Amino acid sequence: MNKEIKSVITCDLDGKLETYSEGAEKLFGYSPDEVIGKGRVSDFSDGQVVLGHVVGWLKEAVEKGEWEGDTVFLHKDGHEIPCHIKITPTKDKSGNHIGYCGVTTSLTDKTPDEVRPNIGIMTKIFTWLVIMRLPFLTATFVPLLLGAAVGSFIGFDVSWGWLGLTILGGSLLHIGTNTANDYFDHTSGTDEANYNYMVPYSGGSRSI
């Protein structure tokens, strides 16, 4: 296996970059000033790889002391890089787990398709749940259902067909509003200015 460029990156428990080697700069194309304290390790991977695999890799690294394998990373200019990575947990002087260290080498004898992690159907479904933030739709249809139930209970004639159309319309409006908000966050620079957290479903376009 011909290993070309070696990158060493450390991050905190939230994935925010703390150290970034010269090899990392060569491999990923970002300067240290662009990413240290600002970027996250997830920025170097496809979103579905992050959702479907990275959490499991980190869990195994903590439980077994390391995780090692091949995957595909993304360069700053968007092209894919076949790589081999070894992940180990980092600890403070008291032995507390404080983050992770990733040692990555490019694979010149592999293509991206040869090392690309498999993306399962559940990961694809979860991706759309994140993009549309579907759990927040409860704020739309729960009040409608509750109101219809109360109305029916006290004697009002409730058309369940019209109720269904109302729920559908309200849900589409909710999804559209969320999408427009995420688009604004991305184009206005809000995501970059508020990079101290990222929560699935509520993390704006950073989740996407």
Automatic annotation (TrEMBL):
Molecular function in Gene Ontology: prenyltransferase activity
Annotated PAS domain residues: 1-44
Protein name according to UniProt: PAS domain-containing protein
Swiss-Prot/TrEMBL keywords: Membrane, Transmembrane, Transmembrane helix
Phylogenetic placement of the source organism: unclassified sequences, metagenomes, ecological metagenomes
Keyword set includes Membrane: yes
InterPro entries per UniProt: PAS (IPR000014), PAS-like_dom_sf (IPR035965), UBIAD1 (IPR026046)
Gene3D superfamilies linked: PAS domain
Transmembrane segments: 125-154, 160-177
Keyword Transmembrane helix on entry: yes
